[in-house]
User: Fold DUF1835 domain-containing protein from Halomonas salifodinae.
Amino acid sequence: MTTLPRPDARSHGRFNLEQQRKRAKELLKAVRADEPDALARILCQLPPRETPLRLADAQFVIARECGFASWPRLKAHIEALDASRRLVAERSDQELTTLHIRCGSDIEHGLRTAGFRGDFLEFSDPFCLGPLRDLPPEALMRLRAHYLAGVSGMAERDALARLRRSYEALDDLARFERVVLWFEHDSYDQLILAYLLHRLHLAPPRARIELIAVESVPGVERFIGIGQLAPDLLAWLWRQRRPVEAPLLELGSRAWAALTADRPQPLEALIATGTPALPMLGRALARHLQELPDAASGLGLTERLILTIVRDRGSLPVGEAFAYLMRDYEPLPYLGDLMFWWLLQPLIAAPRPALAITESHRDWPHRRLALTALGRALLEGERNWLDQASGERWVGGIRIPPR
Assistant:
């Protein structure tokens, strides 16, 4: 079956109403000319009929291709985007002194483009990787800096200095009247959010705390993160922010305590509650627990998916393997490209590696991966990775020693 092209807006979420009207008219014209591709698009969305196609029918097909149930739904969403953009342009975020906190720098430029003027803080310690302990900030920073230096090759003092800028900014919230947390639904974001909520629970600032928590966006085919969205969508999300109240702050502290525990039972118990104050947090914690080694292969879910990609696709560049993981294999995408590269290293560098890699290209995304005999045996449950891996691994507070 031929794969039909998707509108670009299916990735960034910004739709133009006049453009969609034009597309509907072009589709109608192509159908009346009996063009095969146009007829195929119609039959994907509408049952065969004897009566001539109308413009309203073509508009319905366009709406469905854009991810909406009907043309009125698409039209209403576009009008909401336009209204949000105008509101932010007129009022911005300046009625209160505002700090925007995000687990990366991916939306900083988009916020400025959309018309926001508040301060921006990137807090991007990747708690989804490496050891976690319920420690005071200084001790936690040092623990994390030691780990990040080890996997990234960065000097430990540089890793610590980078962390210190964001951790210490959390002690300087008194000058703000509003703090807005921008987070999506995956474990990278939600583990950081749990820590931030825990910190705010321990030392509540005078500022109003608000949360923008996103797990899907109308019309976006595969929502991975806020950073993929057009600036207008940030204005639309701004209107959906909600106050952070006591139950959510308490949930953050419970989640942080469970994440830093040295056994999985506290996390399992918290997940079983459904985390009603923020259901997406419970789902992210459940995905986080899937990084524990399974009984048959000793692999965490990400490791197993990486090996599966190379088995299914054959030898391929690292960058392509990452793209397949994010697009087709990972049920709740959470990794950045560098984190993916870090996770590959034990699979490559063990005395008996599960993956072979070429070193002929200087840029690692272009180096090619291939599955070894051990990698295939791991996927088939004939070998256990815990018998082969030479270094310790951490899933939050849970240490997984070698052998």
Observations:
- The first helix runs from residue 9 to 12.
- Confidence is low (pLDDT under 50) at residues 1-7.
